[in-house]
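Hi all, long-time lurker, first post. I run a small reading group and we've been trying to get comfortable going from sequence to structure in the token notation. Rather than ask abstract questions, I figured I'd post a concrete chain and ask someone more experienced to write out its structure so we can walk through it together at our next meeting. Sequence below, copied exactly:
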Amino acid sequence: MQLFNQKVIKFSVIIITFALFTGCAFIQAPLGQKKMVQLRQNAESIFRRQNAASSQVMILTMDEENGALSDAELIMQEACAALNAYVIRSISNDDFLMLDFLAQQRVISSLDNCDEATKKLEALLQTPVVVDD
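-- Answer (accepted) --
Happy to help. Here is the structure in token form:
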């Protein structure tokens, strides 16, 4: 009787394993894939905006120092440090998907602060500069 139970258990394990593997293989869109794509696009947009803002600050402060712009840019650079480091690592690394999971989580958790700091700098860049003669 024990031999029969062992065969049933082995057969059950094989059936369950097969069902799990085939179930996983037929998933069309894994949960969260759409959210991850949207998050990646959002991060790319923030990265591009903060680089454009930094370029504008460099152009505007070439001849003279603007404390408000420089301070806002510094705050933005600090808020976006995780994103910038991640992008640099992904560019220099051939296997982008193998990047550190913790680094990805740091980027995700810093995106809101980076976006806010970028928006503040962009708002400062939109304000007209008053020049005293």
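A couple of things your group might point at:
The radius of gyration is 25 Å.
Residues 1-30 form one domain.
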